[in-house]
């Protein structure tokens, strides 16, 4: 039973890191405006991400 609990916890941890990496490294597909964290966040949410922020060089990162 302890093995299943540990395996489940490890799987959830790995999935969390995968989602976080996507959120921080990928540029927005549709946002073309000036850097603004609130606007970037809203657009990234509509693109299916968990959020977003303005990142110099990428515009909006989600």
TrEMBL record:
Keyword Phosphoprotein: no
Signal peptide: 1-21
Nucleus in keyword set: no
Domain Knottins-like: 24-60
Pfam families hit by this protein: Gamma-thionin
UniProt-listed InterPro entries: Knottins, Scorpion_toxin-like_sf
Name of the molecule in the record: Knottins-like domain-containing protein
Organism: Panicum miliaceum
